[in-house]
Amino acid sequence: MEWWIYLLIAIGVCLLGIIAVVLIRTAMFKPKKHNYVKNTEEIVFDKQKNVSNLQELIRCKTVSFRDTSLEDDKEFEKLVNLLPKLYPNVYKACTLKTFDGRALLFKWEGKSHEKPTVLMAHYDVVPVDEQEWSKPAFDAIIENGELWGRGAVDTKVTFNAALFAADTLIAQGFVPNSDIYLAFSGGEEVNNEGASNIVKYFEENNIELGMVLDEGGAVVQKVFPGVDEKCAVVGIAEKGILNLKYTVKSAGGHASAPKKNTPIPTLSNACIRIEKHPFKMHLSKATLELLDEIGRYSKVWALRMVLANLWLFKPLLGLAGKLIGGEINALLRTTVAFTQFKGSNTENVIPPEATMVSNIRINLDESIDSTIAYLKKTINNDNIELSVINGSNPSIVSQSSGDAWDKIGAAIVSTWDGSVVIPYVMLACSDSRHYGRISDKVYRFSACDLTNQERAGIHGNDERIRLEVVERATSFYIRLIKSC
After folding, report:
1. Neighbours of 91 (CB within 10 A)
2. 373 Cβ partners below 8 Å, 6+ apart?
3. In this structure, how many other beta carbons lie within 10 angstroms of the beta carbon of residue 229?
4. What is the pLDDT of residues 257-271, one digit of tens each?
């Protein structure tokens, strides 16, 4: 028999072996079993007051701006001054420290001071274009079972839920097993130092935290192909952020006789080069956990096959991310979005200086330095100056198992029956990123089951939330606090 026949036979046997391995791994790719202790105890609290408290918070126009001269300090003071009236038991049982005026830290002493829990939220909101809203953004109108208002979802609902849960339990005589801190920022939307200063306080007092919970994922449905279950996505990490400015200078001149390589075409070429050469795919530990967990629930067999066999299909996944874009691509690589471009102030003058800005979300295991290095190499033009406006590196990856994770999981499955708990990478940034300095048990979960419409209202127009979601958010926090 000729040698090449033996070669073909060997290749055929290898291919059959690979196919067999792929099929077996796909068949075994089933949901994992988790031992979250489901609590069927009825949660009792004043639901009407819970909603009216949230209305009061929304009516405070706590809009934050990077230009602080645009802010209305009286509205922030109004909200803080309302808190003793809205949550009187919290003020009776807890001590309060303030940082820079707007960062609030309540300490609720437990039976032990070991490994306390930190529950976070922010009470500042993003600006509103009133003309684009169907209803006034700060009137907190209730209509058809929905509460309208800026901050209703992001994040006055959880700000209220954590405080109302604590207030209710304190009134019932409940004392937590360990200390609980309620940590709130009044400047999260503009990345102020409030949360960082609270973390500094924990550092200076050598306080080792048992759990940190901040805004992040939510309970969602039909956001992943073939997955019908309610998925409670809990962030165990978040990407870094970098706002980068690109500048080109020239001698300027009249537009009637333009020279070559003027600033705007130079910047445009750099923009195109970056778009054509995206960052390489990198599957971080946290992303792999997400794909492994949620992929097991997908009823799309081909997708399950790919995710069960990333050792073989990883290049295919990377290609799909490039072609599809959006959230899938953002999970796989560092992304660059160009957001601003500025040239001449006059139509017939070549700008002596032109700038553009990109908002970059840095993948886990990468950094600001490595990101800039890649962009410089891709642009390959020394006439373009890159300067950092602001930014922060990706967070550490928190544990997706253990006591803290199980407490959150138990509160979730007890509140949202039939839900599955999925670790994920948060694409946006939050105040919780500061806590990576002192803890690897930092989680990002907004305790709400949100529709696509409700999610679209975050930082958008017509932000609103169903009253039943407001109720479940408080139920979740009561359950979680009882386990701490």
Report:
1. 16
2. none
3. 15
4. 888 889 999 999 999
Cβ–Cβ < 8 Å for 62, 186: yes
What residue type is assigned to position 115 of the chain? K
Amino acid letter, residue 484: C
For residue 19, the tally of other CB atoms under 10 A from its CB is 10
Q: In angstroms, what CA-CA distances link 442 with 132, 158, 391, 405?
A: 36, 16, 20, 9
pLDDT digits (tens, 9 = 90+) for 140-185: 999 999 999 999 999 999 999 999 999 999 999 999 999 999 999 9
Q: Which residue is it, tokens 């990345």?
A: 191
Q: How many Å apart are CA 335 and CA 362, to the nearest integer?
A: 7
Cβ(282)–Cβ(329) under 8 Å?
no
CA distance 280 to 392: 20
Sign for the pseudo-dihedral over CA of 32, 36, 41, 45: negative
340's enclosing H/E stretch is: strand 335-342
d(CA 59, CA 442): 31
CB 342 within 8 A of CB 301: no
- 398-433 pLDDT per residue, tens: 999 999 999 999 999 999 999 999 999 999 889 999
